[in-house]
Amino acid sequence: MLFTYMPALVIWTAFALLMLLTLRLNRKGNPLLNYHLSTATLIALPAGLLFVPFLSLPAPVQSLTGVNFWLNTISLPEISIIAGETAASPATAEAASRSSLPVSVPLLLTGLLAAAGLLRLSFIYYKLRKSLRHASPVVDSDLLSEAEQLRSRLGITRNVRLLTSADTAIPFTTGLFRPMIVLPENTLQESDSQQRRLILTHEMVHIARSDFAAHFGELLVRHLFWVHPFVHVLYRQAAYYREVSCDSDVLRLNSGSQAAYAEMLYRFALLEQEKPQLRAAMAEEHKLLRRIRNLDFNPHPNHTTTPMKTMKNSILTSALLLLLITGLMACSDLLTDTDASRTEVNLDESITYMGQTITLGELREQIANNRQNLLTLIEENTSDTDPETLQIIQHTADEMGNVLMLIDNGHANRAIAAIESLPPPPPPALNEGDSPDLFTVVEQMPEMIGGQMAFYSALRYPEMARQAGIEGRVILQFIVDEQGNVTNPTVVRSAGAGGLDEAALEALSQVRFKPGMQRGRAVKVQMTQPVVFRFSRSEDTSS
Predict the structure, then answer these.
(1) Distance between CA 511 and CA 350 in Å, rounded?
(2) 255 contact partners, CB below 8 Å, separation of at least 6
(3) Is 331:4 a contact under the CB 8 Å cutoff?
(4) Least confident piece of the model among 59-68, 298-307, 332-341, 350-359
(5) Collapsed DSSP state (helix, strand, coil) of residue 481
(6) CA 527 to CA 543: how far, in whole Å?
């Protein structure tokens, strides 16, 4: 499963590299545009991966509970038994079922790394909340009045709280829905009125632009995908250009304050070096000295804030970039589906499946007929058949359609591989007397008395197979008659050796069903039951 996302990750990495090169070449360009482009590239990583499963090439697979691909018969959930374990309780059966699932080590490792990143982000949030608990409201009436004027001037409709704290060396803004500005205590004590106004302006601009929401998204991506080096570099670039673009707005709002603002940034840079641990974790360091060198000391006299046209163009460009990267990542499977991966369709080509020889054309015709039968069944029984059964039938018809698409598009090898993973075609004959009254899908399907646990309790791993290390998968086909008894049990897919077929048949003979019902009467229903015999992973490694 992890490899499904590899083409998307490669595409994002290429775009991230291209973006980093662009930012390096455009260091003197519009900082707001650089900020939005960096953020868009970061957000595109989880967005693109999220849509990959919805736009990938169809890959038909066998459902654990579904309709038999060939017979259109209902297949019960697969039963797994592990050598050396007994069916003492439902918990044991559940554990056996879980252990039979394929575990992807790379996928598991990726999940653990993402969880570690989220754990670290949670710790950062905890430190921030702890720091805020020690903060106290600002009581300086002049500062509060200045903040209210700035809020009105910038069109901020939400209330903004002003706090002061000894746990931070530089001011910062936090709060997604209830914004607050946290000011260092020494800043209030040592700064003059002009510097305090510049500090408030800077933080108010962040709130007016909703920078904290973007910052939170960047943090989330950074900690989810922290193993990717480009994520960290892009995060730092976005943080830097966010502050540089904010600096530009501050200087536009405070004409003639360039020197005072540069002096203030320099003082914060010194404080950052003296006590970096006292800063709240979400108040990231932003290369203050580099920002001072890049300050715009000649802002446009007619612009009090970032021009609205510039802001709109920046957001639009970034949105288009986000859609482009997300779209290419989501369609990565289709993009890598080149003509080189296709083969010319030869419907006369013979294939061997479970000992039977059939041409690709005959196979396609059989699949198409079975799919049409299922679709007809859905149309004719919508009002009588329960919704769950109809959903299963529709899912199988979709799988058949996917196989037909693969064959028609020249992916014969992929289609054959998908077909070979499905249950085999049925044995040729049922008793003639049973045929008229035999159903494959009914309004109320038979139910195993005692549930799947009843079958599992009766299932035993043959001692000969256990000693010889034999594993295998058996598929049983049988009829549940009007009394709920199992009749005509047949092995349609054999494990081949070790007595596994016989053990599965023996377990099936010991279970009973509630009979299937059609139009209010009990009828015979044909069904299948997959059974897996395997060893535990610990036994595999020890042997």
Answers:
(1) 40
(2) 299, 301
(3) no
(4) 59-68
(5) coil
(6) 37
